[in-house]
Fold:
Amino acid sequence: MNSSRPTSAQAERCGHRLLAPAETHRLFFALMPDTDTRRAMEHAATHVQQQQSGLRARWVRPERFHATLIFLGDYPAVPDELVENAMAAAGYVSAAPFAWTLDYVASFRGREPPCVLRSAQVAEALILLWRTLQESLTQSGLHLRRERQFTPHVTLAYARCELAEAIAVAPPIVWPVDRFVLIHNVVGKGNYQVLGNWKLSGES
Structure:
């Protein structure tokens, strides 16, 4: 008795409807680098590849470099009401532009340990922006998981193993942060879609 699953052609002949894989729609607030900063990040990624020639990794495309501020979740379809409420909450955020210095690459733990750009000293204005946005989202009535800690970083790659030690970025990357965005991404498909863009023009 053959218990193997039918092929696509067999399923079509038998009248079975083939279901497309379910999509996952991901939403998150993030910082997106300007052109010069993105190029500096790409240079840092190349430096890591040269220093760690045996590192097996999936490297992030430069156009997808970002720093996540707040993750809004994964959904089977875009939740329009959540997007509207999140965008309204973002509009109430008042924060000043600032410079964020990224000066080393290290690994996070995980099944595919990410190689990430980090900073020895995180800009206090960045932490304040995160807290202010989180507070605004909470006050808008969105029931999101409230994170107690924030570890700002930019993922460069997903590797097979952790880096043995941190790698210095020289010269350090000075990122002039003057805005934050709301991103929609269909996981595994295409580029990021920016749903909203908020310029930092308030007081720190």
Summary: DSSP finds four helices and nine strands in the chain.
